[in-house]
Write a structure and sequence with these properties.
Layout (H helix, E strand, L loop, with lengths): L8 H23 L5 H27 L4 H16 L1
Protein name: Four-helix bundle copper-binding protein
Pfam families: Csp
Organism: Deinococcus oregonensis
Length: 84
């Protein structure tokens, strides 16, 4: 079922960023292959945490929830950590 909801341009930018980061973190978690098993496990956990934060935030944005501002802040913070 296609989504037909209209978002403000600002919210659409946030939603697109969440979905882009979600996809990147899921791909990264699936591709982690390092010699250090403990480091690999921790990286995958962080990737999945970031992906979950992005997915949660995207759902709030799509619903027009009043909680979206705080979720966007948390999501952006986590995405910045993962990009570093």
């Amino acid at each position: 079922m296609p989504m037909t909801a209209k978002f403000s341009p600002e919210l659409q930018v946030y939603l697109d960023a969440c979905l882009t980061c979600l996809a990147a973190c899921e791909r990264c978690a699936a591709c982690r292959m390092e010699d250090n098993v403990k480091m690999t496990a921790r990286c995958v956990q962080l990737d999945r945490d970031c992906a979950d934060a992005c997915a949660f935030t995207a759902r709030l944005l799509m619903r027009g929830s009043n909680l979206h501002a705080e979720a966007c802040r948390i999501c952006a913070e986590q995405c910045r950590k993962m990009a570093a």
